[in-house]
Amino acid sequence: MAVRYERRPISVDDYHRMANAGIFAPDERVELLDGELIAVAPMNSRHAGANAAVDRALTIRFNGRATVRVQLPIFLSDRSEPEPEPDLALVGLDPSEWRERHPLPGDVLHSGEALAPLASPGDDFEVASFVGPAR
Fold first, then answer.
1. What is the C-alpha end-to-end distance of the chain, expressed in Å?
2. Which residues 6+ apart lie within 8 Å of 60 measured at CB?
3. CA distance linking residue 78 with residue 75, whole number of Å
4. Percentage helix, strand, coil for the chain under 3-state DSSP, each rounded to 5
5. What is the pLDDT of residues 26-37, one digit of tens each?
6. How far apart are alpha carbons 64 and 49 in whole angstroms?
7. CB–CB of 52/26 below 8 Å?
8. Which pLDDT score is estimated for 116?
């Protein structure tokens, strides 16, 4: 007889308690997406380079209008939903707010992943998976 298992979604609060209890190794990269823990692959140098280039470009472009967050958590809905750590997110200007909580959907102007070039190192990078319009 087969045993039937049910998935138990993990809430953001569960995820934070697990992290605070030291369940994850210090160098372990995981994100909470749709109530599940997802292992995140280590970042290679091309991905890191793309992140740095997009970070510089966004910081210059939105200076004085938004804060650029690099691989930091954001909430896509009220605290019971995913807490992704996108490569880059544009959020409201007051970074002191982010000491007490992660940005909520109304705070996030844009978020997305920087994709390393697929062809040669001189190619342009691409930004994908953006959520929300830039202001």
1. 57
2. none
3. 7
4. 25, 20, 55
5. 888 888 887 888
6. 24
7. no
8. 46
